Amino acid sequence: MTGFPISAQSPITWPGPAPAQADVVVIGGGVIGVTTALFLARDGLRVVLLEKGRIAGEQSSRNWGWIRQQGRDPDELPIMVEANALWQTLATETNVDIGLTQGGVTYLAETDADMARYAAWEPHARACGVDTALLSDAEVQGLIPGMARRYKGAMHTRTDMRAEPWVAVPALAGIAARAGATLVENCAVRAFDIAAGRITGVVTEQGRIAAPEVVLAGGAWSALLLRRHGVSLPQLSVRATVAALDAAPMAYAGGATDSRIAFRPRADGGYSVAAGGFHELFVGPDAFRALPKYLTQLRADPFGTRFLPKAPNGFPDGWGTPRHWAEDAVSPFEQQRILNPEPNAAKVRALCTDFATMFPDLGTPRTKAAWAGMIDTMPDVVPVIDRIAALPGLTVGTGMSGHGFGIGPGVGRVLSALVTGGDPGHDLGRFRCDRFSDGTPMRLGPAL
Ligand SMILES: Cc1cc2nc3c(=O)[nH]c(=O)nc-3n(C[C@H](O)[C@H](O)[C@H](O)COP(=O)(O)OP(=O)(O)OC[C@H]3O[C@@H](n4cnc5c(N)ncnc54)[C@H](O)[C@@H]3O)c2cc1C
Q1: Alpha-carbon distance 263 to 245, whole Å?
Q2: Which atom from ligand 1 is nearest to the alpha carbon of 337?
Q3: From the CB of 402, is ligand 1 less than 6 Å away?
Q4: Most CB within 10 Å of its CB: which of 32, 173, 237, 377?
């Protein structure tokens, strides 16, 4: 890797045109939309997936590539276990190597309190048959040799995986297309089409598509589109920076993190590093509006978020971003084909130094590339996976809260079942949209 692989200059792989009619329209070509389209197409439905920029141009290519069961919310875990199995099957159905590797995931414990939190989570793993183990410091040294830092121990899940997201999600899109889904890039949905109170399709920049069912998997943009139609979702997005370091000898085949740095080897032999537990919020009108819902999260982790006064122009919560627009006017979605925040340069430098301090035998690595993504998050750090009662025909899968890549195929399979009336196979009560407005007490996901 020398630069970030997907950008607004990338060639369009799926030019369309979109058909005028479909059984289901899926909005958003990230891992959630792509896998939803895949399972719907396999069910024999006529599916159209619309992506305003490029497949996987936003979070779904910019993430760390961790496919982890470890540390999940107990209600997410069964879906994630399903996703783990799905990744392994789907990887054999792509015609490219997506870098899927069962290298494990390790959370390094700096304090006894960290170990206690890990010990408290471990029974959830056992209940779902996940092979999570608590390791001693000596076992950590054996697992990840060459680390200069010593730890109290770690939590480790051997069956957790990693993949190269910028390869994996476009490859999944290829499977969806071969299953019969029509994918259209560079085609923003401006509005839902609604008649007599129910969804009848979408209005796109290329015209209308009639469809009785629509799935919104718009990542950081979902709340903006919903708000236009009177549905309020306290979704915000935070910037997270990643640095891709030069090739170095393999220290550990999986992903590991402490409170300062998270790292994993890439398929090209380098390491991707990021600041574990650090992100930045550009404060805009939605942030002010949603603040009361986020107080529990802010109290639990007062220093995990850095606040920046103003989003760049055109970001979902930008001060100047329109909240209402006409169907025949250019919408905020086509004005920002790919949400591409500048990485935090100081953080990139610090990560490089930190990695060199952590692994002194690997020398001082060079940064080959750096990028950032806007993570869409919810007040309780778990997603919304639900049918929207106020708009019959609309299903929403969004707010993956920084861990949607790994669980993506599981959520896609569940969303497709919600659309077809099939069995989602999991209790989705925790992921209801109304939980933020119906008096449900705020229960934070573990955010481990
Ligand atoms: C730096 C970083 C590290 C992360 N690390 C991990 C990790 O290691 N493991 C993990 O599991 N998760 C991780 N995540 C989170 C994970 O990437 C996301 O949760 C996941 O990719 C979300 O997928 P999505 O499909 O919901 O959203 P996205 O990938 O953001 O896709 C949404 C798509 O919808 C499109 N869209 C929006 N509105 C419209 C519209 N109106 N019309 C047409 N198209 C539209 C957008 O252009 C976008 O492409 C990380 C995220 C980041 C940014």
Answers
A1: 10
A2: 47
A3: yes
A4: 32
Structure-block tokens of residue 436: 């933020």
Q: Please indicate whether residue 406, judged by its CB atom, sits closer than 6 Å to ligand 1.
A: yes
Q: How far is the CA of 31 from the centre of ligand 1 (A)?
A: 7
End-to-end alpha carbon distance in the chain: 29
Atom of ligand 1 nearest to the CA of 339: 47
> What does the pLDDT read at residue 3?
74
Distance CA 218, CA 222 (A): 5
Ligand 1 touching residue 221 (CB < 6 A): yes
Ligand 1 center–CA 196 separation, angstroms: 32
174 Cα: distance to centroid of ligand 1 (angstroms): 18
Rounded Cα gap, residues 407 and 72, in angstroms: 10
Query: Rounded to whole angstroms, how far apart are CA atoms 310 and 332?
Result: 17
What single-letter DSSP state applies at residue 153?
A: E
Using CA positions, which residue lies closest to atom 33 of ligand 1? 28
> For the chain, which residues score pLDDT lower than 70?
1-2, 447-448
Q: Which atom of ligand 1 is nearest to the CA of 53?
A: 47
Which amino acid, residue 78? P
Cβ(243) to ligand 1 under 6 A? no
**Model pLDDT, residue 436:** 97
| Nearest CA, atom 26, ligand 1 | 219
3-state secondary structure of 77: helix
CA distance 268 to 251: 14
Residues 6+ apart with CB under 8 A from 188: 50, 52, 204, 205, 331, 333, 334
The pLDDT of residue 301 is 85
> Hey, whose CA ends up nearest to atom 9 of ligand 1?
66
Predicted pLDDT at 2: 65
> Which residue's alpha carbon is at the smallest distance from atom 38 of ligand 1?
218
Distance from C-alpha of 361 to C-alpha of 169, rounded to nearest angstrom:
34
Handedness of CA 372, 374, 379, 383 (dihedral sign): negative
Q: For residue 400, how far is its CA from the centre of ligand 1 (angstroms)?
A: 8
b vs e for 187-219, b when ≥16 Cβ sit within 10 Å of the residue's Cβ? bbbbbbbbeeeebbbbbbbeebbebbbbbbbbb
How far apart (Å, rounded) are the C-alpha atoms in residues 280 and 80?
A: 27
Q: Are strands 270-274 and 236-247 parallel, antiparallel or unpaired?
A: antiparallel
Give residue 323's pLDDT. 95
The closest-lying atom of ligand 1 relative to the alpha carbon of residue 55 is 49
CB 387 within 8 A of CB 395: yes
Q: Is residue 103 a contact partner of residue 161, using CB atoms and an 8 Å limit?
A: yes
